[in-house]
Amino acid sequence: MNYNKIRLYGAGGHAQIIKSILIHNGISVTDVFDDDPALSHHNFDKIIISTRKEVNGFPHKGDPFIIAIGDNKQRYQVSKFLKSEYSKAIHGSAIIDSSVKIGQGTVVYAGAAIQPNTTVGKHVIINTLASVDHDNIIEDFVHISPNATLCGLVEIGEGTHVGAGAVIIPEIKVGKWCVIGAGAVIIRDVPDFSIVVGNPGKVIKMNTDF
Ligand SMILES: CC(=O)SCCNC(=O)CCNC(=O)[C@H](O)C(C)(C)COP(=O)(O)OP(=O)(O)OC[C@H]1O[C@@H](n2cnc3c(N)ncnc32)[C@H](O)[C@@H]1OP(=O)(O)O
Asked: pTM higher than 0.90, yes or no?
């Protein structure tokens, strides 16, 4: 479904990029909510402060949302509380093959490329100039950072953050809620919850934050 009005949950630095994409695409941002005013970006003047605990008072019904929060765990948590429809924000310069499937709540930034037969889940971030090649499976709540390169037949598990400029060679499976460090080169499968850095990528610790 195409919407011409969208609400944002989150008013930080990541949210301002989503706002910019929506405006370029001719979509109005009707309301912006945040539960942590200290982190809001100066680009947002009117923010409705709300907390996730006010589930009953929150205006779940209305224009669809994008959860405009860069942190994967936070996006996941908000999605569990927010009982609304979701939309997407896709920059006009992104190159996305017509066979690609993209879930609701996902954002694709300037210059990103997504090649044939790739599936991108819900509430995913494909950041600026990221290259996601053919036959990838990107699960929900993933973030592929700027300039990261995912070769063909790569799988990225739920909630994993692939850092800026990381490279993942073909046919690699990265587990869920992992962090791939900036600039890492991943040449072997990565177990769930791993934090991996370096070339070749090595697990340095486990993600205990989830
Ligand atoms: C638009 C945007 O901004 S999108 C956001 C994109 N963000 C990113 O790409 C950030 C990705 N995050 C990283 O690379 C982080 O450094 C992490 C998550 C891998 C590690 O962070 P932390 O858990 O805080 O680990 P910490 O900084 O303590 O480093 C642990 C060790 O790993 C090393 N290390 C950390 N990151 C890297 C890296 N990217 N490459 C190589 N080594 C690294 C450190 O030097 C340190 O080594 P030492 O123990 O020998 O001193």
From this structure: yes
CATH of 89-203, one of 2.60.120.10, 2.160.10.10, 3.30.530.20, 3.30.2270.10: 2.160.10.10
The larger pLDDT score, comparing residue 200 to residue 42, is at: 200
Q: What is the pLDDT of residue 52?
A: 74
The burial of 71, by beta-carbon neighbours within 10 Å (0-12 exposed, 13-18 middle, 19 or more buried), is given as middle
134 is catalytic: yes
Is 143 marked as binding a ligand? yes
Pick from 181, 194, 117, 124: nearest CA to 148: 181
Mean pLDDT within 60-86: 95
Distance (angstroms) between ligand 1 centre and the Cα of 12 equals: 22
Fold of 5-81: Rossmann fold (3.40.50)
ipTM summary value:
0.98
pLDDT at 3 over 90: no
Identify the bridge partners of residue 9 per DSSP, sorted by sequence position: 33, 67
- Are the beta carbons of 37 and 58 closer than 8 angstroms? no
Q: For ligand 1, say whether the CB of 183 is within 6 Å of any of its atoms.
A: yes
Q: Please enumerate in sequence order all residues whose Cβ is within 8 A of that of 19, keeping only pairs 6 or more positions apart, or say none.
A: 8, 29, 32, 43, 44, 68
| Residue among 51, 45, 44, 41 nearest 13 (CA) | 41
Q: How far is the CA of 75 from the centre of ligand 1 (A)?
A: 21
